[in-house]
Amino acid sequence: MKSTIAEVAKHVGEEVTIGVWLANKRSSGKIAFLQLRDGTGFIQGVVVKAEVSEETFQLAKNISQETSLYVTGKVVEDTRSPFGYELQVNNMEVIHEAIDFPITPKEHGTEFLMDHRHLWLRSKKQHAIMKIRNEIIRSTYDFFNKQGFVKIDPPILTGSAAEGTTELFHTKYFEEEAYLSQSGQLYMEAAAMAFGRVFSFGPTFRAEKSKTRRHLIEFWMIEPEMAFMDHEDNLNVQEEYVSHIVQSVLENCELELNTLERDVETLKKIQAPFPRITYDKAIDLLKEKGFDDIEWGEDFGAPHETAIAESFEKPVFITHYPTEIKAFYMKPDPNRSDVVLCADLIAPEGYGEIIGGSQRIDDLELMEQRYKEHHLTGDAYQWYLELRKYGSVPHSGFGLGLERTVAWIAGVDHVRETIPFPRLLNRLYP
Ligand code: 4AD
Ligand code: MG
After folding, report:
1. Most buried by CB count within 10 Å: which residue of 71, 173, 388, 411?
2. Same domain for 164 and 300
3. Which CATH number covers residue 160?
4. Which chain positions lie within coiled-coil regions (predicted)?
């Protein structure tokens, strides 16, 4: 009977045939242990010399890493393995022999691994990270669908910049100038006025010359946008959403978290509500922690975010940033126009900002004033202004960076391992 590794639990005591690749092996004169993978999981195949043909045993001893084959054997429970099952192999049929697979079980340098990303993805660790990424995506749809949000797809090619013009990828759009989207937000605001509560999930592009463990040139963002929701409502949705994805990963990716040796006790604490501090308080906190140079009005860098996060076990919202350092569309605090109704959500354990969000300006005149201040002239932004002309309402939204979120939940140091084919400064291959 055909099976996959993920389905062997249904076949305990039965003989199954599974299409696999050989991940690793070790053997003695009498027994060979094959680490087999099929994409759905990893299982150990045991080949006992006394129980198979001489030809099969020789094959098991000599088979090379990443050779593809069909293995046939009996599924048995195995309490010693984290997976819980093993395969007592009685037959093997090679499909394609892999010769000199470059990524051996020994240590390799990062650049070497990045050059072989197309093969590195097969490793147990990378497999675990991508499965966690997949679970975060799945639970994102689950969360927003349950809450009645409509999935809306903003364009990738656009004439407008949401997050400032310095980090845009330019391209020609026939005779016109166009950019690759930095954020779908402006379009999601239009969608919120049509569907009430919406979310998007798609690639975004930033020509950032940053070479840090938190920056990608191409990354994926989840961007919810909600009509009739203010700053406070916005934070409530964010903490519920982030708690939901963390708890879903804990529930459905136990094996993967175990493979990555992730400390799950810290993740179990990630339940709404999350702590909230204002930017003003954050400045005080930083001064207390010895950042003497930081001045009110400056943006936070990675060391600041990490220092703030250290004071909390859960992600922390930093709210009410100075108007000057935030995007043009953010609504000023009605009690204090030098700060805006925004929040960045900072992950624990030094993983940095995972969400940026805000209540949006809904007043036409104020938005026109911002256009002037930010030199947003021309036709590209006219449509966005019109959203404030026809039944404008209070509305809010946010963007969660998928890769930073995966890095945090999976406990991976660098975002380059959280996306299948990372686009980094100086890396477009493979
Ligand atoms: O804070 P950002 O720039 O916010 C926006 O783009 C808003 N328009 C979102 C919205 O309100 N709809 O980006 C949102 C998140 C960040 O918190 C971070 O997690 C991630 O996107 N991010 C990056 N991730 C990887 N590499 C980069 N270069 C990133 N830049 C932002
Ligand atoms: Mg931000």
Report:
1. 71
2. yes
3. 3.30.930.10
4. none
Say if CB 399 and CB 405 are below 8 A apart: no
Q: What is the phi/psi pair of residue 15, to 5°?
A: -95, 130
The last residue of one of the domains, among 37, 65, 96, is: 96
Rg (CA), the chain: 26
Which ligand 1 atom is at minimum distance from the Cα of 162?
Answer: 8
| Nearest protein Cα to ligand 1, atom 2 | 356
At residue 246, the pLDDT reads 99
183 CA distance to ligand 2 middle (Å): 11
- The verdict on 345 and 229 lying in the same domain is yes
Identify the pLDDT of residue 105: 85
H-run or E-run covering 91: strand 85-96
- Give the per-residue pLDDT at 379: 84
Is residue 111 included in any domain, yes or no?
Answer: no
ipTM of the complex: 1.00
In a domain, 143, yes or no: yes
Which residues does the chain have with pLDDT short of 70?
Answer: none
Instruction: Select from 2, 403, 1, 408 the least CA-distant residue to 215.
Output: 403
pLDDT in the model for residue 161: 85
Instruction: Name the residue at shortest CA distance from atom 28 of ligand 1.
Output: 215
62 shares its domain with 128:
no
Residue 1 lies in a domain: no
Which ligand 1 atom lies nearest to the CA of residue 223? 12
Q: pLDDT (tens digit, 9 = 90+) per residue, 216-250?
A: 999 999 999 999 999 999 999 999 999 999 999 99
Position of tokens 């300006």?
361
Q: Report residue 239: phi and psi, to 5°.
A: -70, -35
**80 and 72 Cβ atoms separated by less than 8 Å:** no
Please give the structure tokens belonging to residue 271: 């339940």
Ligand 1: atom nearest CA of 415 is 25
- CB-based pocket (< 6 A), ligand 1: 162-163, 183, 185, 206, 208, 215-216, 219, 221, 223, 353-357, 397-399, 401, 403-404, 415
Task: Name the residue range of residue 348's domain.
Answer: 117-417
CATH of the domain at 86: 2.40.50.140
Q: What predicted TM-score, i.e. pTM, was given to this entire model?
A: 0.98
Domain count for the chain: 2
- Tell whether 362 is covered by a domain: yes
